[in-house]
């Protein structure tokens, strides 16, 4: 997950993910990185988005807070995490 420490949507997504016992969850706080601008440019090329949060599961871009909210509401996140062997 790519995040910024002050972003309210990043905070909400981290809280949402904390409800799952995700093995090896990696959170990159872009605002703490020396290469923040370069990292954001790479993410934008990869995802088409310049905003955070950006969540990847097993190397696949899933989306941001709004997409994850829908996935959680539909009860699909646990299955996605199990397929990725993240639980």
Automatic annotation (TrEMBL):
InterPro entries: Glutaredoxin, Glutaredoxin_euk/vir, Thioredoxin-like_sf. GO terms for molecular function: glutathione disulfide oxidoreductase activity. Pfam families: Glutaredoxin (PF00462). It comes from the Eukaryota. One of its GO terms (biological process) is cellular response to oxidative stress. GO terms for cellular component: cytoplasm. Residues 1-62 form the Glutaredoxin domain. This is Glutaredoxin domain-containing protein. It comes from Strongylus vulgaris (Blood worm).
